[in-house]
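Record 1 of the preview.
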Amino acid sequence: MEIGACEAKAHLPKLLARVQQGQCFVITRHGRPVAELRPVGSRSRDEIRAAIAWLADFQARHVSDGPTVRELIREAREGRKP
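->
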């Protein structure tokens, strides 16, 4: 369901009550979608799987031969230079 930004502002407590019941809203400004109002954690399993796949792909494409973050932190704590 779409709702204008001004209307959303004016009726936010009522909208939040409806969101708690599971409803979702697209907030628009001048007829253009700018935000979604939906329950926290309402991602579908497909969305979660897609995000995990994207992260795995990103990690595979960005391999570094340098030290790991954990190694850099350990060295910094010990006062050594990488």
